[in-house]
């Protein structure tokens, strides 16, 4: 009862102690935090207030959003600690914090937005620490699965872009090694066979399932402004994609958006839509594997139907000119 009455103060003190220079203090604070946050049941139990997407060092800011961000920042730091004992306690804390985050995400959209603001950043999914990145991915996927669609609308473009870019990160490194060095013209070790295998595996990955859910349940209900914002984010994700699976995922998302919301490709989004169209065309022309090339080509056709006809005509003319230069009239 005494702990419940002073829960917020205890959490604040433990978060501070978890960053102490003494490793035993960090380890003990991590274990105590796991037990303390188990008592939190609602957003108000954590301090209430609105969404917080940036850290604020002001001591006057003691709302639930600030505490949730601080808890995540502390946990991700502990997972990358130099001491194994501290990292083990950090893993236990991470499981407790993930459960708390998913519980709050089903109740309040502020919890969804606050959590995603830190999990999608450089300390979360993009962290060089494998344990921190893994916990972040697991939590983000849990939020996508558990949170109401309306809670995911704000920040949807950033969420989709990060998930698309992360699809290739879950692939076994051995597949990429084999495919890059594949020289058999046909058979199990041909480039196309390995490309097809990679795409089949990525299609069943948790990230691809989460993207499918977003485009099936969240995107159709999102406002036109949010759907328009998806276009430049998909364009950037496609251009930055480091692997075949991410490029194919970006193409699939672009095709799904073009089919479900062709109106988003006009008006203020026309320039961004044309850039996406050109990125898909360049990717389809450059892609070596037939499987990925086919998916990029299908997406190109879907986006072309939604784009302004003059832009499509210009792109087609340029493609014909390149063909003539390469193969002759």
From TrEMBL:
<keyword id="KW-0677">Repeat</keyword>
<dbReference type="InterPro" id="IPR055443">
    <property type="entry name" value="HEAT_ECM29"/>
</dbReference>
<dbReference type="GO" id="GO:0005737">
    <property type="term" value="C:cytoplasm"/>
</dbReference>
<dbReference type="Pfam" id="PF24492">
    <property type="entry name" value="HEAT_ECM29"/>
</dbReference>
<dbReference type="GO" id="GO:0005634">
    <property type="term" value="C:nucleus"/>
</dbReference>
<dbReference type="GO" id="GO:0036503">
    <property type="term" value="P:ERAD pathway"/>
</dbReference>
<protein>
    <recommendedName>
        <fullName>Proteasome adapter and scaffold protein ECM29 HEAT-repeat domain-containing protein</fullName>
    </recommendedName>
</protein>
<feature type="domain" description="Proteasome adapter and scaffold protein ECM29 HEAT-repeat">
    <location>
        <begin position="153"/>
        <end position="323"/>
    </location>
</feature>
<dbReference type="GO" id="GO:0060090">
    <property type="term" value="F:molecular adaptor activity"/>
</dbReference>
């Amino acid at each position: 009862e005494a702990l419940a009455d002073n829960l917020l103060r205890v959490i604040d003190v433990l978060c501070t102690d978890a960053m102490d220079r003494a490793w035993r203090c960090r380890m003990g604070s991590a274990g105590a935090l796991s037990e303390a946050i188990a008592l939190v049941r609602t957003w108000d139990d954590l301090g209430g207030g609105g969404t917080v997407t940036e850290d604020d060092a002001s001591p006057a800011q003691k709302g639930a959003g600030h505490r949730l961000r601080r808890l995540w920042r502390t946990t991700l730091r502990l997972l990358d600690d130099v001491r194994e004992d501290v990292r083990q306690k950090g893993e236990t804390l991470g499981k407790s914090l993930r459960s708390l985050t998913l519980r709050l995400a089903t109740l309040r959209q502020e919890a969804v937005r606050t959590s995603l603001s830190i999990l999608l950043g450089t300390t979360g999914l993009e962290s060089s620490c494998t344990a921190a990145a893994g916990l972040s991915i697991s939590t983000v996927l849990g939020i996508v699965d558990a949170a109401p669609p309306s809670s995911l609308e704000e920040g949807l473009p950033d969420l989709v872009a990060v998930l698309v870019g992360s699809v290739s990160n879950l692939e076994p490194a051995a597949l990429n090694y084999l495919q890059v060095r594949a020289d058999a013209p046909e058979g199990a070790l041909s480039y196309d066979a390995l490309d097809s295998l990679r795409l089949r595996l990525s299609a069943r990955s948790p990230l691809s399932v989460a993207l499918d859910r977003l485009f099936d349940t969240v995107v159709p209900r999102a406002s036109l402004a949010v759907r328009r914002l998806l276009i430049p984010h998909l364009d950037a994700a496609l251009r930055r994609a480091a692997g075949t699976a991410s490029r194919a995922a970006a193409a699939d998302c672009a095709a799904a958006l073009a089919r479900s919301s062709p109106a988003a490709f006009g008006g203020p989004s026309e320039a961004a839509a044309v850039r996406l169209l050109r990125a898909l065309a360049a990717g389809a022309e450059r892609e070596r594997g037939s499987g990925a090339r086919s998916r990029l080509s299908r997406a190109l056709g879907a986006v072309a139907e939604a784009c302004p006809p003059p832009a499509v005509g210009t792109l087609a003319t340029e493609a014909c000119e390149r063909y003539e230069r390469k193969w002759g009239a």
